[in-house]
Write a structure and sequence with these properties.
The chain has 364 residues and is α/β, with parallel strands linked by helices. Helix 9 links the parallel strand 4 and strand 5. The protein has two domains: 45 residues, no CATH class; 280 residues, Divalent-metal-dependent TIM barrel enzymes (TIM Barrel, Alpha-Beta Barrel), CATH 3.20.20.150. The longest helix has 23 residues. An eight-stranded parallel beta sheet has the order 7-6-5-4-3-2-1-8. It is 44% helix and 10% strand. It binds zinc ion. Zinc ion binds next to loops.
Length: 364
């Protein structure tokens, strides 16, 4: 008996009974659905789900993986072969450039995927109309959105003791989750979150903030799970922040909450790549950038990070998302945005090469 489980958005087909348990020959049913729903915008999602399902295809059964999280290396490798890791870049690289222009420039630099930056007013993701416009723009440019940042600073007070500020942050993060649900690629749908602010000393206040933060995450976990969105908790620039991160990942060990590795943040602590190795098992997103010891979001190979070592560790992890550059033009040596983006792409491709023996240099 064939079993198909599609929980995507193809509402027309679901209504027509073309999808669902025991719907008959699986591929035929999906293709039928695709043919009947050419006007249904979420069809792209069904197609992507089919691609993912095909990785796991056995003669009489297709089971869609609910998550890329906690997957075995074997499954991860299969998924990677089907959906290869791509270079991606955050739209925050220069907020002075209007969003629509950023998108076309990113495409012209050869990227196929983007991550939405944290400023809602830049992309317009905080309104339904804005989200429609983003979707249209990225589709016109042949791009997909693999992840996004929660609104900053609006959504950055999840650990606040000020109830109003904390609830407003939760509301803002829910807007990001809605955005992820509406316009992010089915293989992504990840919202990156920051945790406790830096500089809160050990003691009662800090402990109460952590308790409030856990409450915020609990609320957001339930909301995100209902929308099939994942939350990716970023590591920070301080050891005591990362201790909170580890507590949160331990407390929320389901598939909805995972780890977002921020390379620049770890380099500020000078511990590269200890936390990547330690928490890599939970990795669902990456924010890749370089620096010389302060969080300057330079391109890889512009700062002092050991990128050969990064590649050796990174490519050994069961991670199947994209390689997202969270870089900014402000501190880069490349001041021309076109050149900056083409350098970004070139360096991302370099990092995507699996290491062979002695590693490599950019000049290959
Ligand atoms: Zn980051």
């Amino acid at each position: 008996m064939c079993r198909i489980r599609v929980s995507g958005n193809c509402r027309t087909s679901q209504k027509q009974g073309k999808l669902g348990p025991d719907a008959g020959e699986p591929h035929a049913a999906l293709y039928l659905c695709m043919r009947k729903c050419v006007t249904c915008p979420p069809m792209e999602e069904t197609r992507r789900r089919h691609e993912i399902a095909a990785v796991f295809c056995e003669p009489n059964s297709i089971t869609l993986p609910e998550t890329k999280h906690h997957m075995t290396k074997d499954v991860c490798n299969k998924l990677r072969k089907k959906l290869p890791m791509k270079p991606s870049i955050c739209t925050s690289f220069d907020y002075k450039i209007p969003f629509a222009q950023c998108i076309t420039m990113i495409r012209q630099a050869g990227f196929e995927a983007i991550s939405l930056g944290a400023r809602p007013k830049h992309s317009g993701f905080d309104t339904a109309q804005g989200r429609i416009a983003i979707r249209k723009l990225v589709e016109q440019n042949g791009l997909t959105i693999d992840s996004m940042h929660a609104p900053f600073p609006e959504g950055d007070q999840l650990f606040s003791l000020d109830a109003a500020a904390r609830l407003e942050s939760i509301r803002q993060c829910k807007i990001a989750i809605d955005t992820a649900r509406d316009i992010l690629d089915i293989n992504g749908r990840i919202v990156a979150l920051h945790l406790i602010p830096y500089g809160i000393p050990q003691g009662d206040v800090r402990n109460r903030m952590i308790a409030q933060g856990m409450e915020s995450l609990k609320t957001l976990e339930a909301y995100a799970a209902g929308k099939e969105v994942k939350l990716a908790l970023e590591n920070g620039q301080k050891l005591d922040y990362d201790q909170v991160l580890e507590s949160c990942l331990s407390a929320f060990c389901g598939s909805t909450i995972g780890f977002c590795y921020d390379s620049g943040h770890e380099n500020v602590q000078g511990t590269c790549y200890r936390i990547l190795e330690k928490l890599g098992r939970r990795l669902v997103a990456v924010h890749i950038h370089d620096n010389g010891g302060s969080d300057s979001h330079m391109l890889p190979y512009e700062g002092n990070m050991d990128w050969d070592k990064f590649r050796k560790i990174f490519h050994g992890l069961a991670y199947s998302g994209n390689l997202v550059l969270e870089v900014g033009i402000a501190h880069s040596q490349f001041k021309d945005p076109t050149l900056f983006l083409s350098e970004a792409r070139r360096r991302a491709e370099k990092l995507l090469q699996r290491p062979t023996g002695l590693g490599s240099t950019l000049d290959n």
